[in-house]
Amino acid sequence: MMTRKRFLKVAGAGAVALAGGSLLGCGENGTDSKNWAWMDGSEPEEATWPETFAQMREAGIDGVLLKQEDPSVLREVVPRARNEGLEVHIWMVTMMRDENLESHPDWYAVNRNGVSTAEDPPYVDYYRFMSPCVPEVREYLTDHVDTLAQVEGVSGIHLDYIRFPDVILPVSLQPKYDLDQDRERPRFDYGYHKACRDQFEQQTGTDPMDLDEPPANEEWVRSRHDQITQVVTRLADVVHGHDKMISAAVFPTPDIARRLVRQDWPSWPLDAVMPMIYHNFYEKEVSWIEGATRNGVAALDSDTPLYSGLFVPELPPDDLATAARHARAGGGAGITLFNVGNMTDAHWDAVSRVLAA
């Protein structure tokens, strides 16, 4: 019997073929191979959209993850991308949203010091994360995703920032903020909103604020993982209800994701996963991409494709080609480029040779 998830995957592949695209074999786990690019939906200028999309398709890109949530703009740009044979998925910032700061400051995530991101966000001012434990937050996100999934021509929803704030930053970013995060510190340890604490206390009989060492308590750690997973599950139900696909940008390996931002992404009901395997964030060589890709593929169900996210700003054209080869060698179903705005003609030429091979 074909599952709903598998049906959506096959249907999506068929749509690309009908649009004139070609599939590029199969990934290690038998999933259909595709290649993607993240793209800011407000750039480039509207007049250059057809040229940009044509260049992407010619290079071997099958789908665009478009960072644009305005339905009126989407109705203009989506047909242009589809005319060039590209799938379009809406790239949506999920938990990190500031539009409810004034009307609902009580919706925002709270750290172990009792301070919310509405009052004093960590690291940078835009880190205004909402709490996944708050029922009204889940309802708000559900309604928003339902609206976006109804835009004509959109093939799916792509979740980004579907997590808590970083309890520990990637190692190369810590000096930027004059930090040495050798352990989880209360300032950056989130999940202590009253709704989270109440739910945990109902389950275990303990308020997490009363734990002697919260980072060492496996039940409390798992509770934060589960809160994010529950949000993903709810949004996936909505997207699948429209017979569309849902994917997510996640941290590079399951272990890093769980440890740094409370993402247990192998357990999420997604149709595709796009780990941000940004080697330079972790002070790794380009070859690290291969092992990280293989790690993620091994953690997923056999019918869930993984597309390795590559950080173009730190990859000159020849290195981008090398990175794409490492992703392929790691068994991924394709690559995802961050992002279109960083790609030069030389980058497109280099990556096209790998994707065509």
Kindly report how far apart the N and C termini lie: 34 Å
**How much of the residues is beta strand, in percent?**
5-15%
* Total strand segments: 8
Mean pLDDT: 91
Structure characterization notes:
Strands 6-5-4-3-2-1-8-7 form an 8-stranded parallel sheet. The protein is of the alpha/beta class and 357 residues long. It has 10 helices and 8 strands.
Keywords:
8 strands, 8-stranded parallel β-sheet, 12% strand, single chain, 10 helices, disordered N terminus, alpha/beta, 357 residues
Sum this structure up briefly:
The chain is of the alpha/beta class. Helices cover 38% and strands 12% of the residues.
Topology:
Elements lengths: L3 H15 L17 E5 L8 H11 L3 E5 L3 H13 L3 E7 L41 H15 L6 E5 L33 H11 L13 H24 L3 E6 L3 H8 L10 E4 L12 H12 L7 E5 L5 H13 L4 E5 L6 H12 L1
Helix pairs in contact: 2-3, 2-10, 4-6, 8-9, 9-10
